[in-house]
Model the fold of this input.
Amino acid sequence: MTESNRLHVSDDQLLAGLANGSDEILEELYRRYFPMVLHLIQNNSGSEDDAKDIYQETLIVLYEKVTSDSLELHCQLKTYLYSVSRRLWLKQLSKRSRNGHSLIDTEDLADVDDDLIDHEARDRQFDLMADSLDRLGEPCRTLLEDFYIRHLSMQDITEKFGYTNADNAKTQKYKCLMRLKRLFFSVFKEE
Amino acid sequence: MIDHQKFTDWIDKWLRNELTETERLEFEMLRRSDPVLAQRANEQQQLAKALKNYGQRTDFRSRLNRIHASLDMDAVRDEANQVSKVRKLHRNGGTIRQLWQTYRPILAVAASVALITTFGTLMLVRQYQSSHKQQEQYSMMRRDLQAIRRSQNAILQDLNARERALQINPGQVAGSGFLLSPDGYLVTNTHIIQDADSVYIQSTHGDIYKAKVVYADRKYDLAILQVHEDSAFRGKTVLPYGFEAGPTDLGERVFTLGFPREEIVYGEGYLSSKTGYRGDSTAYQVAISVNPGNSGGPLLDEKGNVIGIISGKQTSTEGATFAIKTDYLFRAISAIPTDSLKNSSIRMSRKNGLAKLARKDQIKKIQESVYMVKVFKHEK
Done:
């Protein structure tokens, strides 16, 4: 991709597009800053795959901040993404217990401590939910995902799963939800 | 009593904003009136939110993966390589900053080590110095006089004005000395005459004679002087005091005469120890007050026998003066190479004619034989 056919959009436009789920903007955002992160990771004993993981996690941090309206950007978007990636990579390195956690930096840094603390909390919740859903098994998992994530109506679900009537589907959903609740809160409350 | 399933349904509808007006009112009422139900509503809300977040993230991830899969990785790699080049072009200070950031921990460690080493060394040196300080407590009682500004040669060439010149320039170091024999041999301390260019002795009357160093013994700090071919020096027939080489008892009343200033000064005390500084067996410790300039003066007992030569004092202790024993004076004299003495040996008398005299009369006689020793040296 060359400079000429690149979209010329500002940070604000990128963030707005990210918030309302524009695939075009997301793609532009992804392409714009991936080389920077790739460079960071590769220069600090990481692979291309590491770079991909770190960059995607960084974008998740950004995305979840944007969609929950809690992003307070005090610096360039570039600096923000770099700082988050850097922190995530440092954490990754310390997990792998490598020595020399001082990275070779090429960009300015911004304070992203709070954002990363938020992110860790979300991470825990996400992992817990993924784990709970795994243990819940089918068809409960799909049923609950359809209802709570994809927002299908009970009527749609009744048809999709071939229940005789909507009440049956409701009973099934209720049972599934109760099980998920037990699985999820048994761990969630301990934390 | 509403059953669980129905209430759960209501919560779902409430979360989706699908409750009818009447249902909503009833639901709100139930929540407010029953804390257990309210708790359940809360939990379900949390659960639904966690599910929604989970879905959102999974969805976002798959979008990212789709984008990533469609990336032209070669172009991205090229661009990643350019990142560094662009940075380097734009900022020369970047390298230094990078180095600083990379080596900051190492620098910190190095700096700490340097600091610890520095202060550790300083402390060790201080400790060493303080443990050896006592050596410095032994101060030699010579008097450092005002330094001369004029060339010394000029003074010496002007022989006629010798006396005047010497009085104008009283030398750099002064101490005391006294006659060993009537024919002009004197004893003083080596530390007074060391590095001397020329040595002069001055009597209580103010007569000045040039003297030469016959022998200097650093070990005992004793130096033998001889009045140097000076016709003006009138030799005496006999010295008033004798020399007592035997040990003197503790508590013996002693006195000294010396030149802590231009005038002769008398000092009186008692023998307080048979050894000198740090158990030095060549010296006595005397309780007598001395000042710079007293060095080289005779230490005499009650009867007027010379029992030692004042050499120094301990600065940290009041009234601890040290005097080299006469015995070692004899040893020093016997160590003098006979060549140095030329024609005559030093004839020292053990007889003393002062025993029966009162102290005032003793002093009158003795002071004739005590001289101020003035030393000139090049300024360093």
Remarks:
- Residues 113-136 of chain A form the longest helix (24 residues).
